[in-house]
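User: Second chain of the day. Same drill as before.
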Amino acid sequence: MKPPPRRPGQPPDPPSPGPVTAFVSRYFAGLAALVVMVAASLLGWSLWSRFGERVSATDRTAVLLTENVELLGAAPWVPDNLKAEALRDASLDGGLPLDDPELPRRLARAFGMHPWVRQVVRVELRHPSAALVEIRCREPAAMVGVPGGLLAVDAEGVVLPSKDFTGESAKNYPKLTGIESGPQGADGVAWGDPVVEEGAALAAALGPEWKALRLVECRPSRGNAGAPRQWELAGEDGLLILFGSSPGRELGGEPTAAVKIARLRELAAQPTTGGRIDLTTPAPAAPELRSIQVD
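Assistant: Same format as last time:
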């Protein structure tokens, strides 16, 4: 296609640059861009070397890090990583903004959801970027026999993390047998069976008498249908103790749990050779000793 005819008086088109001229222009344009990039990098490195530590320190004081959370009240029987677990499970282990007005509540909720924590007592934020969390822990009271092993519970029948126990440490606690149900929830949730709740309360009341009497089982006794639940304790030497009702559920005329525990202490101080002992009736009165009066 031919170009349109040139009008009279129109200036001629400038000559197009040759290939050498075009190459030189592109070369110097690229070189100039490279020089600008290098200069910007050097300037950035210089500024960071002068102010980088100050900026990092400012960033660290703007968030609450895990290592700056102080935990009070962790009991000797809970794992050492309770704090890390609580923050991790609540997705708070990556740092918490200190300007978040919900920060104390979020910390309290994170620790309150841990299965070992019974209560969050207080949460305090401390200047410039730290926090204190005080808790009360659940205490193991018994091991419940289930198919395949044991599950730990506290005195209220709340299930505790079994992964934090070994086979050897589990032997330190009373063993509940004859439990036909399984836990209704996860760790940190009540078992959901009144039989477990009663057995756990009894195990907690027994305390050191469990080992002193060399007991091996705490189980509900098989009484008449419809009769109130009774409990019995079995020893390794054939000893069988009818404890009766669990603490706080005593029938009329039945000794209280405190009286029964006192009798167990007396038994623990004496050599036992098996046999059956009934704690549901009052202990026989000791014979009255009368002195002989001399005139």
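The chain is about 30% helix and 20% strand.

User: Great, on to the next one.
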